[in-house]
Amino acid sequence: MVKSQANISLGRSLIKSQRNQSTSNQSSSERHTQDDGLVGQKSITENTSLDDFLSQTRLANKKFTAEQATNIRIVNSSNNECSAPTTSSSGEQFSDQLLIPRRPQLAGIDSAERLKELENENYLKWRRHLAHLQETTDVVLTPFEKNLEFWRQLWRVIERSDILVQILDARNPLLFYSADLDKYIREVNPEKRCLILLNKADYLNREQRQHWLNYFDSIGVKCLLFSALEQQEQPVADADAPTTLMDRLQMNDDDDRTVSLDYRQLISLLKSENHTEKQPFTVGMVGFPNVGKSSTINAMMRVKKVSVSATPGKTKHFQTIIIDDQLTICDCPGLVFPNLVSNKAELIVNGILPIDQIKDVFMAIEAITSKVPAAVFESMYGIMLNKTNDNPDEDSIPIYVSPLELLTVYGYSRGFMTQRGLPDTSKAAKYLLKDFVQGRICYCYAPPNVDQQQYHQFTVADRNLDHRDQKIADRKLQRVYEGNNLLARTDFDEDFFQQTKMSGAHVKNNNISRTNENQDNLATKPWKNHQHKRNRKQKLRRVYSHLDQ
Ligand SMILES: Nc1nc2c(ncn2[C@@H]2O[C@H](COP(=O)(O)OP(=O)(O)OP(=O)(O)O)[C@@H](O)[C@H]2O)c(=O)[nH]1
Ligand SMILES: [Mg+2]
């Protein structure tokens, strides 16, 4: 039956009025504004100055007219301020000024428009504060999140949650930690608390885990260790078994905090934080992009409930997942909080920004080669590198490699070539960065007051070849070498002329070459010799010759 147009529009208007009613019935704490133009947009960490200016004028609700030729200022190019940013040694003293934007107090706000205006105002104030901090000091900030819509989503998650779990990548926890988030959640409601979950604990050994637990204890923050990947990989049937070897060795020691939590332990620990017996208790998962917020939720659910990706910025809208009738989890999109980082390359190698956003491949690879010794690359990729001497002491053994050398040699070895026949360094850089971000080349940062050299030591793995495999590989290599090394052979010319003799080109009446060819053929292919058949036929003819007469 075909529905009439009138029925459809009646249905639509009923749905619309219902939706309006439900919005107006919401409690004041659940009122949120959303800039329709911003929904579904990407996270913005870097803007051109014009984009930035335009977005700020839009938020400030101001209109500008262009003025030509009146405001021209000549900038001396020799005095250019665009030099590479550096981290200030005195940067830590400003860490208490690295704030996240606050949502305006809802009391006394009567309309959504007014709330939106105040949110924009607060956001602009916050941007000005950070800009002022950068201008007046030598502090260089992380390219932090500049899309207000993402901050609105964080505000929403904070208001819904009873506790916040700040998820940090265990390889470099302080880069991902925002002390101000802890402060802000208490400002919203003094009953709310913040926990630290060091995810990707599978990258750390026992001593490293202990160092970080000691550090967070010393600053009075509750810290838990978890590995979403290990928990996901654990088969459902073996759910009761401990996961890693280290965890198996320590399975009897319940009090050992260096053992990463089992997903059931994590769930019960979160439930135990519910001191007010609120049902359901809501936990917000927040943090930088790519730290494993969604993976942790999937590990807790034992199924893939939310999407996960190795590319940062996968979750774009917050989602609510019900674990059971006592516990609900909120998955928040990843946000880059303001922090002190030397440059954008640092964010890329730490997996916070997508590798595709890379502009200067050498700067990004420098961030890796300055930490990882050349021997690690050599053993991992089976290449030989020319090392540079980083140490001013002339006699010291060079252990590091320059980005150009690494990219060139690695590019050659993988066959990444440009059309001009040169190694494709940008393609090589992307593969190397991927290996670093995904932990195939693992580098872990020490907490303050722990010596980095002692904390993280590289062990160069032999290339997983046992003795027999190594022999086979050597023989193969030798054969390839011998096959290719034609100049070393003494019979090189003879072979060549032999080949032309055997070429068998068809020349009319050239019996010599054909006879030669036949003889050669008979020598190499005996099944082509039909002489014996001819003999047999002649013999038969002789035997039966009387019948022919
Ligand atoms: N080694 C290891 N990798 C992990 C672990 N947890 C997550 N990952 C990997 O980290 C990457 C990012 O995981 P996600 O769960 O998408 O991270 P997210 O925090 O939700 O990221 P956004 O949605 O972009 O904010 C994926 O490639 C995961 O496989 C872990 O415990 N160990
Ligand atoms: Mg996610």
From TrEMBL:
Low complexity biased stretches: 17-28
Cellular component, GO annotation? cytosol
Q: Which GO terms describe its molecular function?
A: GTP binding; GTPase activity
Residue ranges with Polar residues bias: 1-10
- One matching Pfam family, short form? MMR_HSR1
Q: Which Gene Ontology terms describe the biological processes this protein takes part in?
A: ribosomal subunit export from nucleus
State the compartments where it is located. Cytoplasm
- Which UniProt keyword terms apply here? Cytoplasm, GTP-binding, Hydrolase, Nucleotide-binding
**Principal location class:** cytoplasm
Q: This protein's superkingdom?
A: Eukaryota
Region span, Disordered = 1-41, 526-549
Q: Where is the CP-type G domain?
A: 151-338
In Swiss-Prot or TrEMBL terms, this protein is called Large subunit GTPase 1 homolog
Q: Which organism is it from?
A: Dermatophagoides pteronyssinus (European house dust mite)
Encoding gene, per UniProt annotation:
LOC113790007
